[in-house]
Amino acid sequence: MAEPQPILQIEDLRKNFGALAVTDGITLDVRPNELHAIIGPNGAGKTTLINQISGFLTPASGRILFEGRDITALPVHVRAGIGLARTFQVTSILAGFSALENVAIAVQARAGSSFRFFGRASAETSLNDPAREVLQEVGLGNRACVPAGELSHGEKRALELAIALAMGPKLLLLDEPMAGVNPTLARSIEDDLAGLAREGLTLLLVEHELDVVERLSDSVIAMSFGKVIATGTMAELRSRREVLDAYLGD
Q1: With bands split at pLDDT 50, 70 and 90, how would you rate the model's confidence at 124?
Q2: How far apart, in whole angstroms, are the C-alpha atoms of residue 137 and residue 156?
Q3: Distance CA 148, CA 62 (A)
Q4: Partners of 231 in the beta sheet?
Q5: Would you list the domain boundaries of the chain?
Q6: pTM above the 0.70 mark?
Q7: Is the confidence at residue 52, as pLDDT, over 70?
Q8: For strand 8-17 and strand 61-66, is the pairing parallel, antiparallel, or unpaired?
């Protein structure tokens, strides 16, 4: 059986901050309908790579192709419109809006709204109903009316996931979605991600907790000093000397 075409292709991607090469000739393919994890020590270039894929940083050189289309120069909102969504290391929500309104605005954006109802998105049934469904999916169904700023840190991470899912992505980029979250909610988010992977959503996940990576991932990309140093399953990477030296230790 033929291998499926990659949903994401990265070709010789490079980005420098001054003399520091934060992505240094990265080339990789991301297969569809799988969960791919990116691991590496602090400063390896993981977040910079995610920022370039999502459009928040422009590469110095190289190409990014999404479903065969060159998106290297496309702005963030265009990438979101064709199916790329992401979460951040630090939560990015509208604190003064309810959880429901935050998600409803994302549903509104997905529909291509002009945002003339911005701030009252959750009053629209066509936005409200799908927003509630997504909140329920991430375990926040009973927190829909709570101002986002009053949610716990872990609930904010779950809300950010809900916002990304409301965009209807084909590829979801997640930058440490369980960072700083209590163990109970972290496991809930992990279960959500596992469920999304089972449903066929392609995920690219930056994660430090290697036991989580091993439970969730179909494949793992190990980075160090801006380069991809190994790919494979977590079990395979545990025996690779270059990965042990860079990240896992003896």
Answers
A1: low
A2: 14
A3: 38
A4: 221
A5: 8-19+31-201
A6: yes
A7: yes
A8: antiparallel
> Which tokens is 107 given?
């549903």
CA angle 160, 165, 171 (to 5 degrees): 110
Could you give the maximum distance between any two Cα atoms of the chain, in Å? 57
> Contact at 8 Å (CB) between 10 and 64?
yes
* Residue 223: Cβ-neighbour burial (10 angstroms; 0-12, 13-18, 19+): buried
Distances from the Cα of 203 to the Cαs of 5, 11, 89, in angstroms?
Answer: 16, 19, 16
Tokens of 126: 């066509």
Q: What residue has token string 């999916």?
A: 137
The whole-angstrom separation of Cα 166 and Cα 100 is 11
**Helical (H) or strand (E) element with 152:** none
Architecture of domain 8-19+31-201: 3-Layer(aba) Sandwich (3.40)
User: Position of tokens 């529909």?
Assistant: 111
